[in-house]
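Need a sequence for this fold. Nothing fancy.
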């Protein structure tokens, strides 16, 4: 599919994580996800992520991975975005609460460090990923999921032009609100 993902927007660069990003990964996992882990766990995740770029490219698979998000002007790490496999309960979202079967979709992920939020970075990066997925990979649609109380992520979904649906099922917890964006081409 692709050997290396390296996207730029007017303010941001989306790039592969590098081993040198170890401290940023640890801080991101702690401050965005509330992970209570030793730095070695973030290091292990980082090594796995870097290896996955190579393996997925060799297998000609979609570039499912997390990517570093940095400001172009000074290279400061502000968060991460990703292309992730996501399971979605379309039956329940379409009004049939008895249909709890899940379907695989290509999903978007974003997370911004607390000190850099409310600057539009998540929306800008997610829009760049959508353009990449629609133009380069020619996907029919992408989705994003979040919790009922994550208004910031729901705003990003709306800015992208996603149609939002509320999941009537209690599980999966990370899939309470689903945003869907169809390829406009």
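Here you go.
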């Amino acid at each position: 599919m692709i050997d290396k993902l390296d996207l730029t927007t007017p303010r941001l660069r989306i790039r592969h994580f590098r081993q040198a990003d170890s401290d940023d990964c640890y801080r991101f996992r702690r401050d965005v996800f509330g992970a209570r882990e030793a730095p070695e766990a973030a290091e292990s995740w980082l090594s796995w992520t870097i290896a996955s770029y190579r393996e997925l490219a060799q297998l000609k698979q979609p570039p499912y991975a997390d990517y570093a998000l940095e400001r172009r002007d000074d290279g400061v790490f502000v968060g991460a975005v990703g292309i992730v496999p996501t399971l979605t309960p379309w039956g329940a979202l379409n009004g049939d609460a008895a249909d709890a079967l899940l379907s695989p979709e290509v999903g978007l992920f974003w997370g911004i460090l607390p000190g850099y939020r409310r600057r539009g970075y998540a929306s800008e990066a997610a829009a760049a990923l959508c353009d990449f997925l629609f133009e380069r990979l020619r996907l029919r649609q992408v989705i994003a999921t979040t919790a009922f109380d994550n208004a910031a992520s729901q705003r990003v979904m709306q800015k992208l032009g996603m149609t939002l649906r509320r999941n009537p099922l209690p599980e999966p917890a990370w899939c309470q609100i689903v945003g869907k964006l169809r390829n406009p081409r």
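For context: DSSP finds five helices and eight strands in the chain.
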